Amino acid sequence: MRSMVAIALAILLGMLIGWYMCHGGCMPLMGGSYGPPKEVNVVADSTYAYHIGVNQKTVHLSKSLHESVVWTFDHDSTVDSVTAVFSGSSPFRSSRFSFGDSAAFSGLATVHAGPTVYDYIVTVYPRHHAPVIVDPGIIIEM
């Protein structure tokens, strides 16, 4: 009987701790909060020329706010897929992200904060046309 009560109390305590940590939005275990991902959206203009908005050419991520990147594109039936590839070093676990119908998420940065600009290439693969390349960059800040 005592073991059943102890198990029930342990489950209840775990539920209370979980609720406390997530009631205002889940928090990382080590403190602080996760910032929303910063979006880099590949858009097509009226002539189907693909580009990234001026304010998204260089994304500044805060390592202390646990920020990440999400790459998206305007859903267009003429696009087969989009890739984001870091040519040198990548600030994330992966150096290649590809997506065909939704988005690609970077995950958290795995490098130290600093003034380094991580250049990468976004390639749009339109159906029945040659690939289109755009080249933004990412800076990881503290």
Describe, in plain words, how this protein is organized in 3D.
This protein has 142 residues and is mainly beta. The protein folds into 2 domains: 1-31; 34-141, Immunoglobulin-like (Sandwich), CATH 2.60.40. It is 15% helix and 37% strand. The chain contains 1 helix and 10 strands. The strands form 2 sheets. Strands 3, 5, 6, 8, 9 and 10 form a 6-stranded mixed sheet that branches. Strands 2-1-4-7 form a 4-stranded mixed sheet, with no helix packed on it. Strand 8 and strand 9 form a beta hairpin. Mean pLDDT is 76; it is low at 23-30.
* Uncertain residue ranges: 23-30
Instruction: Please give the CATH architecture of the largest domain.
Output: Sandwich
How much of the polypeptide forms β-strand, as a percent range? 35-45%
Distance between the termini: 52 Å
Outline, from the CA principal axes? elongated
Q: Tally the structural domains.
A: 2
- Tell me about the biggest sheet? 6 strands, mixed
Topology:
Layout: H1 2-22, E1 38-44, E2 50-52, E3 58-62, E4 69-73, E5 79-86, E6 96-99, E7 103-105, E8 117-126, E9 132-134, E10 137-141
Keywords:
142 residues; mainly beta; Immunoglobulin-like; four-stranded mixed beta sheet; 15% helix; elongated
Q: What is the gist of this entry?
A:
The chain has 142 residues and is mainly beta. It is built from one helix and ten strands.
